[in-house]
Amino acid sequence: MKTLYTTKVTAQGGRNGHVKSENGVLDVEVRMPKALGGGNDDFANPEMLFAAGYSACFDSALNRVISLSKAKTGETTVIAQVSIGQLDNGGFGLAVELDVNIPGVSIEEAQALTDQAHQICPYSNATRGNIEVKLAVTNN
């Protein structure tokens, strides 16, 4: 891989701690969500941060594919739903559902553009074969 960009984020305290990027732009308290034994859902958590990164990255990949295809679309949206669960081996794993909306094209074209974006998105490439990623496509 030819590196194009690198960033660094430091975590202290794990799921009940703090994360901060080297440039200070990301500076967030993280806490265990209520569903995993935390006190409430008032803080960011690792799954939320992963969902934010994946949805933004996928939407960028999607818009690149759309631009290269010269398709005429409205503004796209990508909603990432990230789940954490226990694996059969006792460890933990993630699953992702991406809800992709590409207005202004047929559902078949929206699906084709989404499939192409899934091939070039860095998050999709990083997770392929490691976690289940479901794609749902709409065009309204």
Automatic annotation (TrEMBL):
Top-rank taxon, per record: Bacteria
**What is one process in the GO biological process aspect for this record?**
response to oxidative stress
Q: Which InterPro entries match?
A: KH_dom-like_a/b, OHR, OsmC/Ohr_fam, OsmC/Ohrsf
Q: Where is the signal peptide?
A: none
The record's comment on protein family reads:
Belongs to the OsmC/Ohr family.
Descriptive protein name: Organic hydroperoxide resistance protein
